[in-house]
């Protein structure tokens, strides 16, 4: 399997040679792309000797005048053929250029052109690492699904002490292997995701709604699609662009969401209900805009419980994952939901915390099943989406796990 190591111009560039060797020891076919800055710290010859492949340096030939013989397509063929692009070290400059979609050299052009996962191993001076600009670029890239191998602390090349040392090589290798493993682990799934906040009309102008931005659901759709799944995203109104590669079904009300979900359910193998669905709607929807004539009373009626209905109507083998947005006694309420609705798992998030939950870029959750409770600490929603899918795969594979254990035990007793 082919992976590409991108090397940018930091003092830790020399450690990329060690990373190449470590990846080769995992039976990976390693190719190397270097930035101009990286060549000031280590020569392309080193990587050519280690990999046996030509090291790609720039979009232009050596005198910088004309494109390489085949560079017009090389960055595309390189981008399409690699299974993972790992950039180590990732300088603050590269982080900024990736976050803003620049493509002024081969490495950043390839990063835009590849569908492969991106693993970034930043290394820089502690002040640069802690600078708000660097941290903002990092958050942007994490939201897009990049895996960040966080730098270590210690003495830095500049003599200062603090965060910013390139992570241990084995940590970078582990991140690459994890990403490679995930790349196709949902290839046999059709994942139905709901997202956003439904709107229940009060009159032609007003509606009852909630603060859901759709970010959690869209992150789940993106993550599932990146892992090989066919994804159907049923979304209430949001300000987000539908993730590329997903089948997109826009809805507005709970009733519309229910109809869309039930229509797609027969072909779904995994349902994840991240949408904030209204529990109540106005019993009467005024035909004309309600005039301001002093206090009014609005009678609300319960909406259909889509999650419970999906659990009842699903075909055998379809996993159903609900969410629970709680503000008090979260575990008690979420466990109650899990039991009442019969879902395979509930993702509990404490929406009383302003820094996570509704409309934030980060979230923290507890993945609850009838027998387990797994804490998923605060992280970007896109990273949390992958972690939730990891736990779903554990649910999907218990039979396999048991089968593997039986096989091991039978071998042991032979
Ligand atoms: O969209 P973001 O801004 O990123 O915010 C993310 C989120 C906080 C909305 C998300 O993480 C979340 O918690 N979604 C569920 C919100 C919600 O409706 O929770 P609930 O506890 O009220 O509902 C429990 C479950 O039943 C949910 O899976 C919900 O989709 C489902 N439900 C609820 C009501 C209803 N009538 N039908 C349903 O299917």
Bin the strand percentage: 15-25%
Structural class: alpha/beta
Between the first and last Cα atoms, what is the distance in angstroms?
Answer: 35 Å
User: What form results from the Cα inertia axes?
Assistant: elongated
What proportion of the residues is helical, as a percent range? 25-40%
CATH class of the largest domain: Alpha Beta
Kindly identify the CATH topology of the largest domain. Answer: Rossmann fold
Major beta sheet summary:
8 strands, mixed
What's the number of domains? 2
The CATH homologous superfamily of the largest domain is named CoaB-like
Cross-sheet strand order for the largest sheet: 12-11-8-13-16-17-18-19
Tell me the CATH architecture of the largest domain: 3-Layer(aba) Sandwich
Rg for CA atoms: 25 Å
Bound molecules: ligand PMT
Protein model, in words:
This protein is an alpha/beta fold and 414 residues long. The chain has two domains: 2-180, Rossmann fold, CATH 3.40.50.1950; 190-403, CoaB-like (Rossmann fold), CATH 3.40.50.10300. It has helices at residues 15-24, 44-51, 71-81, 92-99, 106-113, 126-130, 132-143, 169-182, 215-226, 254-264, 306-313, 330-341, 381-396, 398-413, and strands spanning 2-7, 29-34, 85-90, 118-122, 147-148, 152-155, 161-165, 190-195, 200-201, 207-208, 230-235, 247-250, 270-273, 280-282, 300-302, 319-326, 345-350, 362-368, 373-380. The protein has an eight-stranded mixed beta sheet with strand order 12-11-8-13-16-17-18-19, with helices on both faces. Strands 2-1-3-4-5 form a five-stranded parallel beta sheet, with helices on both faces. A two-stranded antiparallel sheet has the order 6-7. Ligand PMT is lined by residues 194, 212-217, 254, 273-277, 279, 303, 305-307, 322-325, 337, 349, 351, 357-359.
């Amino acid at each position: 399997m082919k992976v590409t190591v991108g090397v940018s111009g930091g003092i830790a560039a020399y450690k990329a040679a060690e990373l190449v060797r470590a990846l080769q020891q995992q039976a990976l076919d390693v190719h190397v792309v270097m930035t101009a800055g990286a060549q000031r710290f280590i020569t392309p010859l080193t990587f050519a000797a280690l990999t046996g492949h030509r090291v790609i340096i720039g979009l232009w030939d050596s005198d910088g005048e004309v494109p390489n013989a085949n560079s017009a397509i090389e960055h595309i063929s390189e981008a399409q053929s690699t299974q993972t692009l790992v950039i180590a070290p990732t300088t603050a400059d590269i982080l900024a250029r990736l976050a803003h979609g620049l493509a002024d050299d081969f490495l950043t052009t390839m990063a835009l052109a590849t569908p492969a996962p991106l693993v970034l191993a930043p290394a820089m001076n502690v002040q640069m690492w802690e600078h708000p600009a660097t941290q903002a670029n990092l958050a942007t890239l994490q939201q897009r699904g990049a895996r960040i191998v966080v730098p270590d602390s210690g003495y830095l090349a500049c003599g200062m002490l603090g965060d910013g040392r390139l992570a241990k090589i084995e940590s970078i290798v582990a991140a690459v292997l994890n990403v490679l493993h995930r790349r196709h682990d949902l290839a046999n799934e059709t994942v139905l995701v709901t997202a956003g906040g439904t709107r229940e009309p009060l009159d032609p102008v007003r509606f009852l709604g909630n603060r859901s931005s759709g970010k959690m659901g869209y992150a789940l759709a993106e993550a599932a699609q990146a892992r090989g799944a066919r994804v159907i995203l049923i979304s209430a109104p949001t300000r987000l662009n539908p993730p590329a590669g997903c089948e997109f079904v826009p809805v507005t009300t709970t009733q519309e969401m229910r109809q869309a979900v039930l229509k797609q359910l027969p072909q779904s193998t995994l349902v994840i209900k991240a949408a904030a669905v209204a529990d109540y709607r106005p019993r009467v929807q005024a035909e004309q805009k309600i005039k301001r004539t002093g206090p009014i009373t609005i009678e609300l009626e319960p909406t259909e419980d889509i999650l419970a209905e999906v659990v009842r109507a699903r075909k055998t083998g379809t996993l159903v994952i609900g969410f629970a947005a709680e503000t008090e006694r979260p575990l008690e309420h979420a466990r109650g939901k899990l039991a009442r609705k019969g879902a395979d798992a509930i993702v509990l998030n404490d929406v009383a915390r302003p820094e996570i939950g509704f409309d934030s870029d980060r979230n923290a959750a507890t993945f609850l099943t009838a027998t387990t409770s797994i804490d998923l600490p605060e992280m970007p929603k896109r990273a949390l989406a992958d972690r939730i899918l990891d736990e779903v795969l554990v649910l999907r594979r218990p039979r396999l796990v048991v089968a593997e254990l039986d096989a091991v035990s039978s071998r042991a007793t032979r």
